[in-house]
C-alpha cells in the first residue's frame, strides 16, 4: 500500500475532521484569552524624558557646539549607568520610604532699611519655611528591586533619553519614574560637569497595561490547540491500517473483486425439533400438522 501522503489525502483528512479542528481551536483561543485576562497579573509602564547638556564656554563657536552635542549623545550610555547605580537608586529607595514634605512657603530673611543716622528699620519681617506632609504614597523597595524595574532607552543621535519603569501597580511605576528623574537631576552635577538638566515629560499613571498581550495570547491558544488537534487527527489517520473499501483490497493484494458479501447477524438459538400445530376445523376432527420452528429462549 502506498504510504506517501498526497495533498488530496491531506485535504480529505482536513475535511473529515474540520469541525473538530475548529472547535478545539476556539477552545484554545478561549483558554489563551482567559489566561491573559484573569490569570496573569497585568504589568503597567511609566516613563519620563530627560535632556542633559554639558557645560559650555561662552566663547565656543558653532563647530564646538556641534562637537559638544555629539559628545553628549555618546555620554548617554554613561548617564544610563549612573541612573541605575546604587548611589542614585539608594537615594530613590530612601525617599520613596520617606517622601519629602511639600513646601508651602520658602524661608525668607528679614529685610531692613538703613536710615541716614545709621539705624535700620525693619521693612519685611522674616518668614519661616512652611511645609505640609507629602501626599505621595510610601513604598518600601530595595535597590535590587528598583534595578529590576528601571530601564533606560534612547533614540539614535538624540540627546533625549527616557527613564522607563514597569510594575504591577500603575501609580507605583509613575512615582518611581519621577523620583528617579528628580534624584538624578540633583546628583548629576556632583558626578560630571553638567549645567543643564531638564525633565521634558513627567511620568503619569497609565490605565492601559503593557503586558500580557491579550490578542497575542488568544492567537497563540488558537494556533497551538488547533494545530495539535490537526496533528493528532493526521497521525491517527496515517497509523490506521484497517481496510475500509474493496478497492483497497485489490490494491494491496492484487486480487480481482468478484463481489461483496453483506454482514449476516448470527442467530443465538436454533432448534430442529418439530412443533405440532392442531388445525381445529371442528371440535371432533383435529388434524395434526408439524413443521420445523425456530425457538428463541432468553
Automatic annotation (TrEMBL):
Domain Polysaccharide chain length determinant N-terminal: 5-96
InterPro entries: Bact_polysacc_biosynth/exp, LPS_length_determ_N
Pfam hit, one: Wzz
The protein's annotated pathway: Capsule biogenesis; capsule polysaccharide biosynthesis
Transmembrane segments: 18-40, 216-235
Record-level Gene Ontology MF annotations: protein tyrosine kinase activity
Domain of life: Bacteria
Gene Ontology biological process terms in this record: polysaccharide biosynthetic process
Region Disordered: start-end pairs: 275-298
Cellular component aspect of the GO annotation: plasma membrane
Topology with respect to the bilayer: Multi-pass membrane protein
Keywords on record: Capsule biogenesis/degradation, Cell membrane, Exopolysaccharide synthesis, Membrane, Transmembrane, Transmembrane helix
Location in the cell: Cell membrane
Comp. bias (Polar residues): 278-287
Family: Belongs to the CpsC/CapA family.
Physiological role: Required for CpsD phosphorylation. Involved in the regulation of capsular polysaccharide biosynthesis. May be part of a complex that directs the coordinated polymerization and export to the cell surface of the capsular polysaccharide.
Protein name stated in the entry: Capsular polysaccharide biosynthesis protein CpsC
Organism the protein comes from: Leuconostoc litchii
Amino acid at each position: 500500500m502506498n504510504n506517501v501522503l498526497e495533498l488530496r489525502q491531506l485535504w480529505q483528512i482536513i475535511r473529515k475532521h474540520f469541525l473538530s479542528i475548529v472547535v478545539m481551536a476556539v477552545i484554545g483561543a478561549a483558554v489563551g484569552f482567559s489566561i491573559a485576562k484573569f490569570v496573569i497579573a497585568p504589568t503597567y509602564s511609566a516613563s519620563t524624558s530627560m535632556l542633559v547638556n554639558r557645560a559650555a564656554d561662552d566663547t565656543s563657536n558653532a563647530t564646538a557646539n556641534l562637537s559638544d552635542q555629539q559628545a553628549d549623545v555618546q555620554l548617554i550610555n554613561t548617564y544610563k549607568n549612573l541612573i541605575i547605580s546604587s548611589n542614585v537608586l539608594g537615594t530613590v529607595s530612601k525617599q520613596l520610604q520617606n517622601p519629602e514634605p511639600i513646601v508651602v512657603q520658602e524661608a525668607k530673611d528679614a529685610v531692613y532699611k538703613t536710615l541716614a543716622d545709621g539705624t535700620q528699620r525693619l521693612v519685611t519681617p522674616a518668614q519661616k519655611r512652611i511645609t505640609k506632609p507629602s501626599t505621595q504614597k510610601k513604598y518600601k523597595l530595595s535597590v535590587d528591586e528598583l534595578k529590576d524595574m528601571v530601564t533606560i532607552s534612547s533614540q539614535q543621535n538624540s540627546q533625549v533619553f527616557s527613564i522607563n519603569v514597569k510594575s504591577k501597580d500603575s501609580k507605583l511605576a509613575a512615582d518611581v519614574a519621577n523620583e528617579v528623574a528628580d534624584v538624578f537631576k540633583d546628583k548629576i552635577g556632583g558626578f560630571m560637569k553638567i549645567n543643564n538638566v531638564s525633565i521634558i515629560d513627567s511620568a503619569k499613571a497609565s490605565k492601559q497595561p503593557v503586558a500580557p498581550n491579550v490578542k497575542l495570547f488568544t492567537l497563540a491558544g488558537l494556533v497551538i490547540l488547533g494545530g495539535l488537534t490537526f496533528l493528532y487527527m493526521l497521525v491517527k489517520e496515517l497509523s490506521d491500517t484497517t481496510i475500509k473499501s474493496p478497492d483497497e483490497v485489490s490494491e494491496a493484494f492484487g486480487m480481482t473483486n468478484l463481489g461483496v458479501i453483506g454482514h449476516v447477524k448470527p442467530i443465538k438459538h436454533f432448534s430442529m425439533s418439530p412443533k405440532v400445530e392442531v388445525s381445529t376445523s371442528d371440535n371432533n376432527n383435529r388434524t395434526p400438522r408439524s413443521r420445523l420452528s425456530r425457538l428463541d429462549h432468553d
